[in-house]
Amino acid sequence: MKVFRVYEYNKDLPPTPTQQQNDNEKNEKNNSIHAAAYSYREYSISSSSTSSSPSSFQETTRKIKKQQPQASFFLSSFLAKVHEIPKRIFMDLFLPVGYPTSVGKSYLTYQFYDSLQGLCSYLRGVVSTSAVLTAAGVGDGDATAIGAAMTWAMRDGLGMIGGLFFSYITSCHFDSYVKEFRLFADVINDVGLTLDMLAPYIAASYGKKCILFVSAMGQLCRVACGMAAGATKGSITQHFAIRGNMADLNAKESTQETLVSLVGMILGIVLAKYLHYLESGGSDDDSSLDGRHAAAVVSWSIFIILTIVHVWANYAGVKL
Known about the structure:
72% of the residues lie in helices and 4% in strands. By secondary structure, the protein is mainly alpha-helical.
């Protein structure tokens, strides 16, 4: 059994024993200077494989290379694969197959604006629903549950009837004005949410008999929004599906909306708890305002800001 001491410098190939011996004889005086730059490893090779012939020496060199450690290479490869797993899962779940070559250039930008406006709508829906329930008598000792349920059902029925008339008038123009109706859908939704926010004040000023009319108008606006947005969604999806992958884009659109809804649900719960905290008188922002007034100011402030962001996001998305 023979032991070879192989020297390595800057990751170069290890020199042969003969070359190393000659170099040591010529540079005997400088060995102490360059010793720090060299590192060596010892390899055990059987004596039968170390003959003086060139082929035997080449075989010995190959065996030495096979014995060199490869732990750092495998570790770096493993870490690289682990790092790619979350990214791959995210792309497979929320982006179409073959992205970005399978969709239009502005697909990701449009989806960002669409998700932003959807999040704003969800949060405003939490605030406006609270206002509608207050106007319907929730929390009022004189109101009855059956009365609130009848108001809610009549509101939905009148909104559906109005939606039928809207579809009869505008359905023939959806294909010709896709962007216009897409923007109209979100604007009319803003009008409906604003009417819901005004419902408690109208009930306090003109009586609860006007609540049905205001709520029905708000529901009509939302029905018109759903029709216009649904009718134009197919054309927009077809525009981005450059490889005929409309089904895949619709599926990924659904997952994106689910994610936005989950985020909106979490933020909506936090917002609702904060508004309830204000209504209970826990706010110290202004001692001259009671809890309900403070909650109303905060609700309207949040609603107006989200509405501005909502309109801007829709305009930016349609403009692409």
